[in-house]
Write a structure and sequence with these properties.
It is a single chain. The chain is of the alpha/beta class. The chain is built from 8 helices and 9 strands. Strands 5-8-7-6-9 form a 5-stranded mixed beta barrel. Helix 5 links the parallel strand 7 and strand 8. The longest helix has 13 residues.
């Protein structure tokens, strides 16, 4: 079943960048892709396909949180046979060394969601990045002297947590930052036998309470997108 994407067969490339914000998808298409066209506008969840340095690539908004992300990624994988999902999103820092606009490459994703408990019962499944995409992203960042951090991130079901210090326990165990989608993307990728990677930009810090503007979240994340476009 495919009811959230109106793309025709062949409209969507094998590699799709998946930001949560559909306006970030629009900005990526307009800024980085050549000959791009919009293939989806259902519910305002914009999707585009174009080329980047001769490579065909799509970019599809997924909305915020695991449930919304599961809907769009499931349809991309099941109906359109996408082979690479690369998240380009924002995150909140848990560690003091992470500054605003720093890049985080998610090697794995912890979560407080029951996403995988529904499948594995009381056991914890640990979804991880694809090694090929991960190494290509790291190599590109190093070659182009783009600083980055790599490690475990938290895919949280809560944007506004009732416990303001909740992040400290995660930070104690080395988790770098919080976002809301990576665990879902990595899990679906394994289920469908495809590749996935999540690249994040620090938009706020739970340590210092600093944050970037909404405009910067939408339109000023160039380095993250460049890494993503050169990781497949």
């Amino acid at each position: 079943m495919n009811i959230h994407l109106e793309a025709k067969k062949g409209d969507i490339a094998e590699t799709v960048l998946v930001p949560g914000d559909p306006l970030r998808a629009k900005w990526i298409a307009e800024t980085f892709l050549e000959d791009s066209f919009c293939y989806n506008n259902i519910r305002g969840m914009l999707g585009f396909t174009g080329t980047y340095r001769g490579k065909r690539v799509s970019v599809q908004g997924t909305g915020m949180g695991i449930p919304s992300t599961l809907i769009y990624c499931q349809e991309l994988l099941e109906t359109y046979k996408v082979q690479n999902l690369i998240r380009v999103g924002s995150a909140g820092a848990f560690q003091p060394e992470l500054k605003l606009m720093d890049i985080v490459i998610a090697m794995s994703a912890s979560t407080n969601s029951s996403l995988n408990r529904a499948v594995f019962g009381n056991a914890d499944f640990a979804p991880t990045a694809d090694i090929d995409l991960l190494l290509k992203a790291i190599n590109f960042a190093e070659k182009n002297t783009i600083p980055f951090h790599a490690g475990n991130v938290l895919s949280s079901d809560f944007f506004y947590d009732e416990k303001p210090d909740y992040f400290k326990q995660w930070a104690k165990y080395g988790v770098l930052c919080a976002e809301m989608e990576t665990a879902a993307i990595y899990t679906l990728a394994v289920k469908f036998g495809v590749k996935a990677l999540s690249i994040l930009t620090i938009s706020d810090s739970l340590v210092t309470t600093e944050e970037i503007s909404a405009e910067m979240r939408e339109q000023k994340l160039n380095e993250m997108v460049e890494i993503a476009l050169n990781s497949f």
